[in-house]
Amino acid sequence: MAHSPAASAAHPAPIVTLTVNPALDVSTTTETVMPEHKMRCGPSRVDPGGGGVNVSRVIERLGGHSTAIYAVGGPTGQAYRQLLEAEGIIGRAIAIAGSTRENITIDETSTGKQFRFVLQGPHLSEAEWMRCLQATEAAMHLGGYVVPSGSLAPGMPDDFYARVARRARELGVRCVVDASGAALAEAVAEGVYLVKPSGRELGELVGAPTLTIDEKVEAARELVARGRVEVVALTLGGDGAVLVTAEGVTRLASPPITVHSTVGAGDSFLGAMVLRLAQGHDLAAAFRGGVAAGAATATTEATELCHRDVVERFERQLAAG
User: Fold this and answer.
1) Residue partners of 274: CB distance under 8 A and separation at least 6
2) Of these four, 139, 199, 269, 271, which has the most CB atoms within 10 Å of its CB?
3) C-alpha angle 98/103/109, rounded to 5°?
4) Interatomic CA distance for residues 131 and 257, integer angstroms
5) Exposed/middle/buried for 22, CB within 10 Å: 0-12, 13-18, 19+?
6) Is 248 left (phi over 0), alpha (psi -120 to 50) or beta?
7) Is 267 marked active-site?
8) Which residue out of 25, 158, 267, 282 is catalytically annotated?
9) Cα–Cα distance measured from residue 186 to residue 58, given in angstroms and rounded to the nearest whole number
10) Helix, strand, or coil (residue 252)
């Protein structure tokens, strides 16, 4: 990895995020979800979602900046762009022929259960996903971070994130991947700086879907020991998170909260962690930032993301032990 001047809060390292299958996140409430009935819903909200874009949105909320590369098309894509621009997100929209997908989250008020419907998304041609790759490469800067995050779109090769990781390494950029299944496996095989799997995603990656927490930690340690990943940030929902590096293992419990919605909590974790690293904080402080932001998002309703004052309060609590 090539070296660059040290990052600081005043001069943070540049961050690029990549979202190839973004979604308009539509959320609402209804009393009871049941088949064959019209379910009258409460007020709805619409947010521009998708892994990398949510990372950029969290970075912006926490006072940082990033460049968001995302693929959009059709009327939903136009609405998506407008929502992002209204939040002040700087980036490059890659035009595609298909229409940007929607995801639907419904909170059942009678039980507190949450139902999440994740639509497939449009097919990307080779020319379209190559434009995404080229735009991401053009936005990378020596000493910075690139965050390819979220699902791949239909038509994309499993090794797409691995291709991003390869170019990042050649350009002296740290690649941070948040994905699952074959896309994550290919990226890890190529070699990346950091991965942020959930317990389930890590189990799938190592071919053992039912692991205890201790076994998950050991699996993360083996990933690092094999030299394909420098840092594993393992998120465990209500059980907090685990940071695994060659230097050791750090566990953090989540701050005590009342969970309203976990939508976007993982993206918030990653956004805060990468921002703190880009600001020159050490891994331990960045990890606290991630746990704080994930918890802060879980306290919000539906698809709302974390708020800066809550994140910073949780960071102080975690630092105090």
Assistant:
1) 15, 55, 59, 145, 147, 176, 286
2) 271
3) 160
4) 42
5) buried
6) left
7) yes
8) 267
9) 27
10) strand
